[in-house]
Structure formats: structure tokens, C-alpha cells
Request: fold
Amino acid sequence: MAPKVVTKIKSTARGVHDKILKRQKPTMSIPVRNLSNVTYSPRKGYFDLKGSKKTRTLTYNTVKTFAQTLRMMALSKSIVETDDMATKREVYYVSKNWDEARFDEQPESDTVMDDVEAMFEVNREQLGFVPDEKGGDVAGALKVIDHERTTGKEIVVDCTRFGSGAYSVPVSVEELDFETSARFILAIETGGMFQRLNNHNYWQKANCILVSMAGVPTRSCRRFIRRLSEKKDLPVYVFVDGDPYGIGNIYRTLKVGSGNAAHINEYFCVPHARFLGVTPQDIIDYDLPTHPLKKVDIKRAEDMLRNDPFFQHYKQWQKAIQQMLKMGVRVEQQALAKHGLNCVIDKYLPEKIANSDKFLP
Amino acid sequence: MAPKVVTKIKSTARGVHDKILKRQKPTMSIPVRNLSNVTYSPRKGYFDLKGSKKTRTLTYNTVKTFAQTLRMMALSKSIVETDDMATKREVYYVSKNWDEARFDEQPESDTVMDDVEAMFEVNREQLGFVPDEKGGDVAGALKVIDHERTTGKEIVVDCTRFGSGAYSVPVSVEELDFETSARFILAIETGGMFQRLNNHNYWQKANCILVSMAGVPTRSCRRFIRRLSEKKDLPVYVFVDGDPYGIGNIYRTLKVGSGNAAHINEYFCVPHARFLGVTPQDIIDYDLPTHPLKKVDIKRAEDMLRNDPFFQHYKQWQKAIQQMLKMGVRVEQQALAKHGLNCVIDKYLPEKIANSDKFLP
Reply:
């Protein structure tokens, strides 16, 4: 991975250098990133850019941004070559030593970083730029193969051996490898539910890997699930609250990505993820306590039906969302506790997973 | 631990039962929890209750709350006896099967849980009630001794063996034990800084344990640091942003607790924690880039000087906060990146730790 990015950076930099030597105006070409500029097809599986590009030419007006873009590329090259990393915030501070090319505010450096990311059609983790927020927690039938940065020595992390604790996914997962005999990955919304399933060694009974997303999954968490599931050909089942947020934000973002980050969805989505529950139908089938939909829930659900290319693609989802709106209620994964704290382990999950072909798409 | 709580629950329940058999009105006595009702003394090291109690007598008006309190105690007893756990949200849902004693909204069940916690003078984790939010991330010279809930078998988690990942602290840490030869614990504000120190095996060079707090530390994270540092007699150095939030919220909460949870500060504070940095003086000593204090920063700093018993106790802190207000700027831990991404490892931390006696209290 690393050398490929370095090669790309060098080649672009050489292009700029050559043009300057020829006394021509150097240019860099960057895809336009825009909310309305995405398409969804189940074949691709993620929100994709429609394709237009903007060209940044070196002129009197663009000289600062142009210089900053080159500086950013140079920083990335040096980070990747030394197997180091930098957060967005650190990059902003590093620029304080770039004299006239320094950034005054972090949003400026973030924008240039996004440009570089889009220009090389990689995710910024591949450039050595890592998020400040960590990935999810993991427990179960999985060995993660990592390496020591200082010595390069291989490290095997056995995720069955953490007791009530868990493996905390690092901010960058690009170089991790995996060994597993698990049957599926269970991605869970809340830390509390993850802890319950982990404490009771559910992963052992079901032969699976548990991942705690703690709300809308971070980039690292989504990338971890994507890489693991793809490399090991594992189905991904998503277990979240049965409300517009759990379905429309958490699940949708994990599966196909989000609108405002279209140029990276390709790396961060999990196209083969399937929705285990909690579904509106589960409320009836499992006699679950509910809460009335709030105004914001109704608005979100209606938005999903009206504007979201993903839900518009699937009749089954439209039916489920309409059922939720008609019932006027939402349900949480903890609601299963009404039937005993471990009903989720003894009854709900086994019954659902036995019929995984019926999961919502 | 567990049997002690069960004994307390049984004894209180028996008191209620006996009174009823004698046809007297049963009572339960609960400490008053109140913001203005705390004191600070460095000897105790945490915000402490001044001591008044309220008595809940079974009457026509209190019958529902009284019944709910007893139900909550019974649930706790059964959870502790089966080595299980329940989140606050799950407890609320379990109550849906308590007929007339069920809770309509979670704030009601949370209040009764707080009452039970205060009544037995334990933290709710000891009652088997766990937070939904996880603790911090840990890496370094530490072995955590846990046990499998299903078999009771001991599990040893080696925190040197996570590569770029980390050990994710479970929601309840009451039963963990520790082995370590580390010299200190370094508690870090941001996930990004933690990742840098972890990737570069800083814990090996400095022989320490790294803990990522990710902002104001959760209960689990504070309790983990407290138990580990106390059991192994380790100093705790806190490395956060040099701003009123880092000092007044993150550090202060970790060290002495918070005002609105006075009955549990005893368990969740880390009285011997010391402030490594970033200090206002570091801005000068290390030539760090800063940001102007915002209105909210100034207000918070002035509040700290005027109303916070902790900062009022320490002249050194008053001086440092006044210096910050006078300079009119705040500084982030990432600002050290101006002098190179690893300046923090090669220069800042070693220099500071060599003079740990000069840390702010």
C-alpha cells in the first residue's frame, strides 16, 4: 500500500516540477465533491461520485493553496516512508513551520487534505493522516495481525483473550491482517449490548466476531469491518435500535456511506452488510416495549423515503419504514430486556440468525 | 465485594420486612445529594458530602417509589449473585414487567438507582448496574487479571501485546486485578496523542502505562485509573490541553470528582493525580502556537477561580489560571507538533517527567 501512494505523490510532484521547468503553468486535477453529485447502484454498493473534476492551476490567486497542497503531499510522503501517522490537528500545527504556506485555521488544512485524498483517489489513512477518534471495540473468534512500528516485528492479537475487556481498534487499520474461523460479524449499536454479549461469551456460542460501533461508526470502525469482512469473506449483521436514527444513520452509513464524503465511501462502506434488527415487525413478534416517534424521528423517516437513494432502491426498506411510521413507535435493542436480561442471547439472536436470509437488505 | 453488597441488601430488606410484620411503617434512609453540599479537603482528596440524609417512609404517597426501590434492590441482588450486569437502560426495561411498580420514563428509574447506590454507600457498578459508555483505552507495561464470566477461569490480558490497537477497558472494572512494573500512569486527553505514543512504544521507553481518556473520562475510565494506581501505588500524570476545559473539566473531574455526583466521588476520583501539562508556562518555555481564549473559556476560568473549592484550595493553580487569563490564550497538546511530530516523545515528555515534583497539584 505505502509505496503505491508514495509513487503517486512523486509522479504528481514530478509533473508539477516538469511544467515549471518548461515555464508552463503547473496544474493539479481534483474530483468535485458534492452532496447532490452521487449515485447509488447495488452492484457498486456505495454512493459514488458522478465524475466531474476541478483543475487547480498555479496563478497569482492560487499560489498559497497550490503551495499548501504540495507541502501536504510532501508531509504525507515523509509520514508514509517513516511508518508514522499524523492527526488532522497535528498536520495543522506542523504547518505552523511552513512560513507563508502555514494554515491560519484548521478547516483550511482539512480542505487541502481532502483535496489531496481525492486527487490520489485514496483514503487519507493511506496518506498517513489518521482521525483523532478511535475505531470500535472488538471481541470474539478473531486474531488480528499487526506489527510493531519500532521493530517491524509481527504481533498477533487474540480477541478471544480479553475477558470483559475488548480489543480497541486503532485509528488506522490499513495494514492489519486477520485470521478467523468465525461465521459472521455482528456490528452492535450500543456499548452496553456489546458488553452483555461479550460477558456472556456470545461470540463463542455463535462463533462470531462482535464489534461495538457506539453510535454512528467512525471511519476506523467502518474500515475495520470492511477490510475484515472482505478479506475473510464474512457476512456482516447489523444490530441497532429500530428507529430512524439506527436505520437511516447508523446502518445506512455503515452499508453505503454518507452523502458528504462521497469520494471515500468506496473505502469506508460495507456493501454486503445486512440488517438483523431491531425491525418494526420485531415489536409485534417479540412483544417489545416502545416509545412514540418524536417529530424529529418522523421527519427523518420521511426524508429517508423521499430523498435517500439507498432506501429508494429497496422496496423492502420502504415497506419497513412505512410500517414504522404507521405504528408511530420506535424500539431500542435494550427493549428485549423486558423478557429477561439475557433474552437477547437465549432467544432473539439465535432465532434471527437462523433466518438470516430474511434480513432487510 | 459482591457478597458484601448482597449482605447489605438483605439486611435492609429484612429491616423493612420486620417493621411490616410489627405493623410499623418501614423506612429507608438515603443521603441528600446536592451541588452546594460538598466540601474539599486535600486529606480526603475528593468532594465529600456534608452528611444530611432524607428518610423515605412507606406512606400512601410514597408507596410506588418505595416498591420500586425494593424491586431495584432485588434486581441488584440477583444480578450480583449471577455475576451478570445491567445497564441503566436495561433496568428501565426490566421494570416493564414489574406491573404497577414499572417506571414510565428512564429518569425515574435512574433516580431510584442513584438512591439505592447512595443508600448502600457503594458505586452502582458494585450493585451490578453498569454505564452504557465504555472506559478508556490502555496500552503499556500492564497485565490485567480478569475472569471468564461463564467458567470463572482466570484470564490474563497483556497490554504490551496490542500493536497499534489497545485494551479497551470494560464498563465495570470492580473485579479486575493488576500486575505491573511500570513507574507511572499517563492519562491522555485525545485519542490521537494516545495513538502517537502507542505507535512509537513510548510506554516501553518511559516504562509506563498509557490511558486514553477521550475527553472527560467516563466513570469506568476514572475507576480503572483509581483502582490500578491505588493497588499498585503508581503516580498518575495527566496530559491534557492547556485550556479551561482540559484543566477545569477533564483534570479536575479525574482528580477530585464532580459536584453533581458527590456521593460517588469517593470511588471515582484519583486524588493523587498530578498535572503534567500543557501549562500556560509551557507556551513560553516551548514556544507553542496558541489560540485566543473564547468568551466561554474566560467564563469557565473565572468560574474556576471564584466557585471551585478545588482551585480555591491551591495557590499554584490560581497563579496558573491567572497567567492563562493574562496571556489570553489557550494551547492544545497537539501544538507540540509545530516542532516536529515526535517532539512530544523526544523532548517534551522526558523533560517534564524528569521534574515531576514541579507538576501542578
Notes: Chain A touches chain B through 62 residues (CB under 8 Å). DSSP finds 14 helices and 17 strands in chain A.
